[in-house]
Known about the structure:
Elements: E1 9-10, E2 16-20, E3 23-28, E4 31-36, E5 41-46, E6 51-56, H1 61-82, E7 85-92, E8 96-101, E9 104-109, E10 121-125, E11 130-136, E12 146-152, H2 155-168, E13 178-181
Antiparallel strand pairs: 1-6, 2-3, 3-4, 5-6, 7-12, 7-13, 8-9, 9-10, 11-12
Amino acid sequence: MSRIGKKPVAVPGGVKAEVAGGMVKVSGPKGNLTFDVPSPISVAVEDDGKLLRVGREGDDRRARALHGTARAMINNMMVGVSQGYEKRLHIYGTGYGCNLAGRKLQLNCGFMGRGGKNKYQFDFDIPDGVEVEVEVAAARGDSDPAKLIIRGSDKQKVGQFAAVVRKTRPPEPYKGKGIRYHDEIVRRKAGKALAGTG
């Protein structure tokens, strides 16, 4: 048995879970989520709706792999609709910043180019079920970053959107300019040594 898969999933207070037609539906204060259960996996409601137990048919490699994965996905749903997920991003660099315009996230990752055109401004459509909060709109130098928070009940959506935003301008290793997760450690490199004077 999968060590993860055999653990029952607790349904938190204020969360309602249903299993019908091969689909798990979870609703709570942070939203509603659904999960299509793959064919060799079964999900049963136990203890008057307080527990979900994930089982599997057969013992082949695919069934064993999906057993733990399905249980982890359902558990993530419980956390998502009860507590939610968030990713915090910090944007370092002079002239760098972020702004919200309706359901769009605007990033400014550099100075203005020739002719006043900013080739470092990027617009992102915020996915459904994801919310973005700008804590600090503009970075000040290379030590005081702009800050934003990406929140949502779907762990995959939150993580994916954060990764897409970070990929726009990953942190470079010399001055550390760019977009990074708040707890990310950027390994710095020493710049080129000055040529000998004389």
